[in-house]
Amino acid sequence: MAEDNRKDISAEKALWLLSPRLTVLVTTMNKEGKVNAAPFSFVGPVSIEPPMCYVAVGKGKDTEAFAKELKQFVINLVSEDFAQKAIDCEAKLPRGVNELQEFGLHMWASKKVVVPSVKEAPATIECELTEVIEPRDSDHLLLIGKVVWGTCRFFKEEQKPDLDAMNLIMHVAKGHFRLVGNRIDYERKKLCQK
Ligand SMILES: Cc1cc2nc3c(=O)[nH]c(=O)nc-3n(C[C@H](O)[C@H](O)[C@H](O)COP(=O)(O)O)c2cc1C
Questions:
Q1: Ligand 1 in contact with 58 (CB < 6 A)?
Q2: Which domain holds residue 112?
Q3: Is the pTM of this model over 0.85?
Q4: Residue 18 C-alpha to ligand 1 middle, in angstroms?
């Protein structure tokens, strides 16, 4: 029997074991047409049919307020070439000031939602806000989005995004990041039975 060499870590630190996670820049807009952008990494899929995803947002942030106004948001993936500017967008600017413009990034029209996308992003996921979930006692809420469109600028073949070409940034903790690494394939027996 192997020696039990586990050491305890705090519950807060244990949470950080769930990393690295993709770093994204979420764009939102309010009814006056003001655009907001902020980086997030508590992001993931929640449903395949229909395609849905979540962003866990600290309560009271501009992203929450703006997403609730137009009931839309865009998840813009972040690549290494503009990562520092995307991270700079976490600055606490007065509500209504467009972080993209402040930090030298650009917007262009999304395909299915009125909230603009980030021009520099190698891929985007356009969402309609369907629900805001407040887990009991938590300091974050979940923006649940139905995916209505996606775009990607790097493809291996039709409908297959080229992860190697995108140079995506993942968030570990604090100011620590990683690049999405090498591809590795494993057999999935359940898939083979189908
Ligand atoms: C890489 C990175 C990841 C982040 N992930 C999250 C996150 O998942 N949830 C969150 O509430 N804040 C996260 N933040 C902090 C927000 O970006 C920050 O609070 C920002 O000011 C929110 O902007 P807003 O008020 O315009 O929405 C992250 C910051 C960085 C740099």
A1: yes
A2: 14-193
A3: yes
A4: 17
